[in-house]
């Protein structure tokens, strides 16, 4: 499956993002509107668009800004939100999602973006791009609005895997630190391990073990470890990277989203209460718009898959043009900074140390060590 | 440890709430201010106050409304926030927390309230009040602001135990339904099981098992089961009771609190931005106050311990007078409705059915069944 070139030469100096045009809740028109938005803002970005070409071409042709910046990869099938990852892994070869990853795998694109089924995208990413050596479970990292100077914390994993043992959590800390360094320009990110309390005796056993492991890596991996943090610290200024398993992380981001939208709804109600409050709301529009812009999930749309050979950004399924454009921007920024290579180098440099640390924390019987040596 | 009577006769017709005056972040003065607030609003409430009498009496004497409505139970020791539950279980006999539970145990009070260390309070509650027959793990239930007609959803467990198996989750569903019926006046509450997606194949194995168990009880226990719900539904209108393990539930409520306080801080910033926005904020004050009141965690302060012989309300450690008063109100309301007895009856009526359901879901070998019979 090689992308059919339209005007390849024009794209020569551009960073190419591979975009799965199908599978989002708002269909390919939202995706094409999103990449048009990105193309308008950023002359350095080009696209390979995956999906049925007869559907996509008319949408692209309507937008002058995309002229000469899109290559098509004609794929008949679509992964639906209901498809089980295991099914897609076996039967997904003709889908736009599979094809979008293929362009990263064969080096034609420097990153992939999809609004589709998260589980299927992660499963396909693992089998097509492969995990980095030393990474057991890849993770999805997102940016969560916070009171930090950089306005966001990184949180991972938010749903790649519902389980994580102590060693996985250590890998998440290392990968999250790399992401914070490249994505948020933090020199020495502060790592926090999510738990139900900050006291060291609290929580599940794998968390206590991970606490010990992560603490050993602060110098080699160039981060600070602030120890256990709580749910309230996800939006706080105590840590820059929140490390947790994918079940807890997924519930936490959705709880945060739900709370924000509840407050938004109540705010509207409150302002509709009386004539005076309606007047106030008119005067307050620009203030409220500033607030909305600051926490608008569409503007930081994109979960990044960490721990793979290549950059994959999962956009929200319900993303509109603004959301898709934010996901493209993130993929572009990471490609431009050489993030995938840096992360791979960082993980490689710690693989042996990780092994040592795990053995220190959980000693292997002597005879087994001899066998390994 | 029997409460020393001041003016017992005056309290004869009142519902007596046993209050641990110590161990909160704001000390006994906040607790006394809180019970004074309750006493002022509700002529039917009386108190047994636990802590060093020489500290408490001057605080109480300053408030006329408490005259004749407080009995003292002089206890020298205090459980601190740092004390490990296991330590308190062995050495806690002289503490105000132990004593506060004792008044419920011996029938002198119809409910207990404490702002102290949650882990210690739960551990002491289990050893002093004992679990209801058929309950394996007691749970802490809280009210979470939502878009429901009743303005709140019940969520449990939010931190009694970091683990829960399928059978525990079923018990939480039964207890949560009882609480929603008595605490929120819902005839047929809708139960949702918290997961990372709504599809039946998603999530951990104990969740899939619990899904099957809970579905079997909709008729006997008089609730609707809406199946899996996500983090965003905690503040939504899809379910009235959100069932989860104590680790996930604890992270979720703290994430919700953190998100709400982030938005509050950003709202203030947004309104301070310009002269126009400051003017808007003056006009908007009453709207914002309405919003604040609606989601103010102090006004629904109180985690209820479910699954014990007696009602215990855990107030937030940092509760001020308003928060303590809300916790007292909740304990009073539950005592007045005979909640503890109703819950016990409900659990008792389902113990056998639960056993049958579990056996159906996970058959016990025949020879073991014979041994049990």
Automatic annotation (TrEMBL), chains A, B:
This is Phosphate acyltransferase. GO terms for molecular function: phosphate:acyl-[acyl carrier protein] acyltransferase activity. It comes from Sedimentitalea arenosa. Catalyzes the reversible formation of acyl-phosphate (acyl-PO(4)) from acyl-[acyl-carrier-protein] (acyl-ACP). This enzyme utilizes acyl-ACP as fatty acyl donor, but not acyl-CoA. Keywords: Acyltransferase, Cytoplasm, Lipid biosynthesis, Lipid metabolism, Phospholipid biosynthesis, Phospholipid metabolism, Transferase. Homodimer. Probably interacts with PlsY. The gene is plsX. One of its GO terms (cellular component) is cytoplasm. Belongs to the PlsX family. Its EC number is 2.3.1.274. Pathway: Lipid metabolism; phospholipid metabolism. GO terms for biological process: fatty acid biosynthetic process; phospholipid biosynthetic process. Coiled coil: none annotated. It is found in: Cytoplasm. It catalyses: a fatty acyl-[ACP] + phosphate = an acyl phosphate + holo-[ACP]. Pfam families: FA_synthesis. Its main location: cytoplasm.
